[in-house]
């Protein structure tokens, strides 16, 4: 069927597959860290009789999702939390060291979430970190510390603000509303330019809160703003959640072109099939609890993901050319949750031994393996095994007459050579060539292993 092309004036501004060094680096990251930190870290999902919904709770939404026991003036109370924001244990260098040990190659950090509170001393809003007892520029501390560890920094920025009188959900109608919303747009632009100016090391923005009609209808403004941000900061990486075209199409414009440099819709879920992705760059952001991004005091009674769950998701992402970004929600003092510490260290131990199968690795064009996930790089094929065969023989089926054939196999961690045999026995010998890899007798590890 012939595809009809729609006229799109405010469509994609960048090519589908950028090949500049910033984007090549992005493609090679493999593993990233997300940090949600802000005033919501103080309540930690439950506070003074207020409790966000358990299970479905997104602790950073407590201002909106406060439970039935919330007092009348809860929102006003929340908006005063900044007066007690004084994270005594906050040590950006310690966070950055931990991220480095975990094996993260990039960080996405919340400069301002939906509550509107800026973690940097913004000239464009008084509702910022300078007004808190902490006073110091948290964004600067984080950007500097991570950059010093060689970890690239991306800034999370929520456009929508719950408590900004100039913000509105619907597109402005009256002249007064138009004027008010234009003020909000200018403010947003000023803050973004301010972030670029203050923190020139950053590699990109991770936008959020761009789904309301007010923003959707402001497409001439957002189009021009994206252009300006890119002009001011060559190489800047922006995901597909920043803006829409003039037909209201988000993520992809009306002709199906990705809006931005990578697909940003994979949030607490992963694509099931490589072909859906259509060659687009993407990342997936993931919580450890079911749906809490900000600090949650109490993880009991929730299924919180294990290190193995997360490793499997990492492999699922990288095997389909995506990055996997794991979220941390530090508490109001600046400490990570103890279970986050454990997971970071376990992931780090695994990455230390097996990172070669992740960093710079990409999709291997092979049928899905029942044992785990294939990745490939520079003539090497990696198989990360989550399901160990009981007979200790890993069977790899390659298309018959494939130009590339395996010549040797080894365990990635430690490099132990493994017996590899071309097998004459198989179900589909006309179409496939079978290779059997003998795992060491009694082979056991506590985590997935890579051949
Ligand atoms: C947003 C935020 O509301 C949330 O607090 C958190 O910061 C998360 C990373 O992003 O939540 C979203 C945004 C988009 C979708 C779902 C949740 N989405 O497109 O499916």
Automatic annotation (TrEMBL):
Record keywords: Glycosidase, Hydrolase, Signal
Class of the enzyme per the UniProt entry, highest EC level: hydrolase
A Gene Ontology biological process term: fucose metabolic process
Protein name: alpha-L-fucosidase
Pfam families on file: Alpha_L_fucos
Stretches assigned to the Glycoside hydrolase family 29 N-terminal domain: 3-356
Originating species: Sphingobacterium humi
UniProt EC number: 3.2.1.51
One annotated GO molecular function: alpha-L-fucosidase activity
Family: Belongs to the glycosyl hydrolase 29 family.
């Amino acid at each position: 069927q012939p595809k009809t092309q729609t006229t799109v004036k405010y469509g994609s501004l960048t090519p589908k597959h950028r090949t500049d060094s910033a984007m090549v680096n992005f493609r090679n990251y493999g593993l990233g860290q997300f940090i949600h930190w802000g005033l919501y870290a103080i309540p930690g999902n439950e506070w003074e009789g207020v409790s966000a919904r358990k299970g479905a709770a997104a602790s950073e939404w407590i201002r909106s999702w406060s439970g039935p026991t919330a007092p009348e003036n809860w929102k006003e109370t929340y908006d005063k939390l900044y007066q007690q924001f004084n994270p005594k244990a906050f040590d950006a260098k310690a966070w950055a060291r931990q991220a480095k040990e975990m094996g993260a190659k990039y960080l996405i950090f919340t400069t301002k979430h939906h509550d509107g509170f800026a973690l940097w001393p913004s000239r464009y809003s008084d509702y910022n970190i300078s007004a808190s007892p902490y006073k110091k520029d948290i964004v600067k501390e984080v950007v500097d510390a991570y950059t010093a560890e060689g970890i690239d920094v991306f800034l999370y920025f929520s456009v929508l603000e719950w408590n900004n009188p100039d913000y509105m959900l619907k597109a402005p109608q009256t002249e007064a509303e138009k004027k008010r919303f234009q003020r909000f747009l200018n403010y947003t632009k000023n803050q973004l330019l301010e972030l670029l100016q203050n923190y020139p090391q950053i590699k990109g923005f991770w936008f959020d809160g761009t789904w309301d009609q007010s923003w959707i209808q402001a497409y001439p403004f957002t189009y021009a703003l994206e252009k300006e941000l890119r002009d001011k900061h060559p190489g800047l990486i922006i995901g597909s959640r920043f803006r829409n075209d003039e037909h209201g199409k988000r993520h992809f414009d009306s002709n199906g072109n990705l809006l931005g440099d990578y697909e940003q819709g994979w949030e607490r879920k992963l694509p099931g099939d490589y072909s859906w992705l259509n060659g687009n760059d993407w990342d997936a952001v993931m919580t450890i609890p079911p749906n809490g991004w900000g600090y949650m005091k109490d993880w009991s009674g929730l299924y919180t993901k294990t290190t193995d769950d997360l490793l499997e998701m990492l492999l699922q992402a990288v095997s389909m050319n995506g990055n996997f970004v794991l979220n941390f929600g530090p508490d109001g003092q600046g400490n990570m949750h103890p279970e986050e510490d454990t997971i970071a260290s376990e992931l780090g131990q695994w990455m230390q031994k097996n990172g070669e199968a992740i960093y710079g690795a990409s999709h291997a064009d092979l049928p899905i393996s029942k044992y785990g996930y294939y990745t490939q790089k520079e003539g090497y094929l990696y198989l990360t095994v989550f399901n160990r065969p009981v007979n200790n023989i890993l069977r790899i089926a390659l298309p018959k007459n494939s130009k590339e054939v395996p010549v040797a196999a080894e365990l990635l961690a430690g490099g132990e050579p493994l017996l590899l045999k071309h097998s004459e026995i198989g179900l589909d010998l006309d179409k496939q060539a079978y290779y059997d890899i003998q795992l060491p007798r009694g082979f056991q590890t506590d985590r997935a292993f890579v051949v």
